[in-house]
Write a structure and sequence with these properties.
- By secondary structure, this protein is an all-beta fold.
- Helix content is 0%, strand content 52%.
Length: 227
């Protein structure tokens, strides 16, 4: 008798010893599989007890049969909590249910790897896999993706010099949204390319925000005005 797990791919090979040439080999499985050849590859999709018979015969009509009993064991149950998004540096709790034993991988950023509800603080986006095992050695896994939003750096145009009455186009990138100040000499407050027309040398500040409101970055551009 052999214990196997549901949905395992099983491969068996015929080991036939005969003084006469073997002309017939057939595999008969109690789930309805009936194939010939020197090997059998099969998958059981329902738990239960099955028999696998190998029938061999020679060209002179001599036959022999061997039978193996297979116990197909049900898989354990494990359910992981849903995917989450966090800002880098934050901690989130993972959760697994359905069993009494758990193993989490990878270990990076986890408070424990063999508990049901570890705390996770990954430095980058990580897919955690939790696996459980039953008494027959059958395993099942589920996963949870932790999407980690990273800090960013603004990309700014260099400082500029203009004559009074002229204008300078400021540019910024690297974030999702922006707020400029002071605004009284800018064409817009929240665009990426405001036009500055100051009467005196002015230091403009821009604050960038990511789409998830995790991080900000601040930059400065000086527009010098000559008379």
């Amino acid at each position: 008798t052999e214990n196997v797990c549901l949905f395992d791919t099983l491969t068996y090979f015929a080991n036939i010893q005969s003084s006469e040439p073997v002309s017939f080999t057939r595999w008969l499985v109690s789930n309805g599989v009936n194939v010939s050849g020197n090997s059998l590859r099969t998958v059981f999709t329902q738990p239960g007890a099955y028999s696998i018979a190998l029938v061999a015969g020679t060209q002179f009509g001599c036959y022999d049969t061997t039978i193996r009993i297979i116990n197909v064991r049900e898989l354990p149950i494990v359910v992981a909590s849903g995917d989450q998004r966090i800002c880098r540096g934050q901690t989130v709790q993972l959760q697994a249910t359905g069993s009494d034993n758990y193993s989490w991988t990878p270990a990076n950023g986890l408070s424990c790897v063999d508990c049901a509800n570890p705390q996770a603080q990954p430095a980058s986006t990580t897919q955690y896999v939790v696996t459980t095992r039953n008494q027959y050695g059958c395993t099942r896994s589920d996963s949870v993706l932790i999407d980690v939003i990273q800090p960013f750096k603004l990309l700014l145009s260099p400082n500029d010099s203009i004559c009074i009455g002229e204008s300078s186009t400021l540019t910024v990138g690297g974030a999702n949204s922006y707020v400029w100040s002071p605004t009284n000499t800018l064409s817009c407050e929240t665009c990426m390319n405001p036009v500055a027309k100051p009467d005196i040398t002015t230091r403009y500040r821009v604050v960038g925000y990511d789409v998830y409101n995790c991080f900000t970055d601040t930059g400065y551009v000086v527009v010098a005005v000559g008379y």
